[in-house]
């Protein structure tokens, strides 16, 4: 079923040049845009300390999620769908294994961090872009659906761990959110 859904989504690649360009752009600049959006929260005027705390949580979740992925990659060696002849690749080949998707982890960790901080509008905006990033990874042929689901799960777990361990208004948080 994973291969069938992956093949179906990737089957739209090549049908519309504009959609292909859009999905390639999202897969290439989506995560940097999400990171930039999280960083820009630092200079928000409303609820400044809380937004700074959320931005720090997003950054920590981002890093923790990617670190977890590196651990998973030591044990799980899944071929990319284009290497298996399942998808048409629209971007350059990746040098690492397919599972889990780092793009999905990175984007979903930020979205979930903002959601867990009770910032629904920001979480919705980050979440929408994160879902586009996840979809683009399948569309361009570089990941299976379960690679993306696994990466998104890692991002969500990382955000939950950060939420549990890094407390708002702790001494460290007051110091960090007071910078600049």
From TrEMBL:
<feature type="transmembrane region" description="Helical">
    <location>
        <begin position="148"/>
        <end position="166"/>
    </location>
</feature>
<keyword id="KW-0812">Transmembrane</keyword>
<keyword id="KW-0472">Membrane</keyword>
<dbReference type="Pfam" id="PF01569">
    <property type="entry name" value="PAP2"/>
</dbReference>
<dbReference type="InterPro" id="IPR036938">
    <property type="entry name" value="PAP2/HPO_sf"/>
</dbReference>
<dbReference type="InterPro" id="IPR000326">
    <property type="entry name" value="PAP2/HPO"/>
</dbReference>
<protein>
    <submittedName>
        <fullName>Phosphatase PAP2 family protein</fullName>
    </submittedName>
</protein>
<feature type="transmembrane region" description="Helical">
    <location>
        <begin position="21"/>
        <end position="43"/>
    </location>
</feature>
<feature type="transmembrane region" description="Helical">
    <location>
        <begin position="123"/>
        <end position="142"/>
    </location>
</feature>
<keyword id="KW-1133">Transmembrane helix</keyword>
<feature type="domain" description="Phosphatidic acid phosphatase type 2/haloperoxidase">
    <location>
        <begin position="55"/>
        <end position="163"/>
    </location>
</feature>
<feature type="transmembrane region" description="Helical">
    <location>
        <begin position="55"/>
        <end position="77"/>
    </location>
</feature>
């Amino acid at each position: 079923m994973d291969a069938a859904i992956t093949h179906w989504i990737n089957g739209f690649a090549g049908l519309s040049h504009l959609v292909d360009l859009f999905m390639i752009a999202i897969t290439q600049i989506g995560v940097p845009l999400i990171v930039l959006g999280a960083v820009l929260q630092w200079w928000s005027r409303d609820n400044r300390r809380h937004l700074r705390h959320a931005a720090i949580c997003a950054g920590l979740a981002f890093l923790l999620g990617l670190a977890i992925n590196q651990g998973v990659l030591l044990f799980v060696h899944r071929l990319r769908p284009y290497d298996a002849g399942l998808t048409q690749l629209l971007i350059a080949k990746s040098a690492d294994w397919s599972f889990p998707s780092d793009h999905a982890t990175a984007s979903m960790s930020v979205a979930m961090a903002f959601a867990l901080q009770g910032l629904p509008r920001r979480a919705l905006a980050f979440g929408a872009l994160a879902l586009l990033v996840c979809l683009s990874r399948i569309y361009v042929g570089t990941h299976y659906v379960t690679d993306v689901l696994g990466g998104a799960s890692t991002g969500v777990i990382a955000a939950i761990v950060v939420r549990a361990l890094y407390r708002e208004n702790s001494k460290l948080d007051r110091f960090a959110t007071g910078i600049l």
